[in-house]
Amino acid sequence: MTNYASFLSVFLLASSVPLISAQSAFFGKLKGNHQPSRTSSPGVVLTTGGQVNAPNAVTTINNQDGGTCVDAYTQYCGSGSAFPAKSKWCSFEDMFNKNKPLMFASCSQFNQPNDSGPEIGAIYDAIQQIATETKVDHRFILAVIMQESGGCVRVPTSNYGVRNPGLMQDHNGDGTCNSDITHQVQNPCRTSVITQMIREGSAGTSSGDGLAQCINQANSSGALAFYKAARLYNSGSIDSSGDLCKGIATHCYVSDIANRLTGWTYAAHACNQDG
Length: 275
Hints:
Number of strands: 2
Structural class: mainly alpha
């Protein structure tokens, strides 16, 4: 498995990244992540270490697993039949490279120090490690990271009834470099904490499901399993209509994830479902 230091034989330094304002890109969920059906009983402790079952399990790491990213946005709603097929997703290599400039700038909107080169390298390595552990497609992990935090390792914890810390704003996890409990900010953010944040978002916490469990709960195959999983991760359920733009939390969430998987980074956010 290729680590970040040897990725494309180039270690991208922050000084060589174009100056791009985080405000020139759209990311984040507007109303928090909710998983009420899984935490409705006090004292319930969920199983962590989730792993994707066949046929959606990805058992090998392949950075050339798609095409070239296209920075454009198309609004997708409905049951998922009109959403992009996996054959339309861009490769992890291109997707990560296209999102690096945003990662280097994304903490500024939170008035925190922006990510360093080594911190972004740790994100890359952690995605590959956790993708191997959980069998979650590494592109899906990256898409959720960019949606939730823009890759800012010092992203604050959100709480709209459910505490969401870390890079993936997971369900009441422990990993964070900007603690809402101790009110301490870690700079640099330790590699072990970056890995923990991505593991908790992908494999689940004792309070809520991660991407792996959500993919399994989707009861679908192909790209549809991932789109349904995105709705479950954000909302905890899929609206009875089956429309992935409906329900609680952020209505544009699944459309955003679909566009990130095909290469959206800085194009105008053309989803009107959240008003």
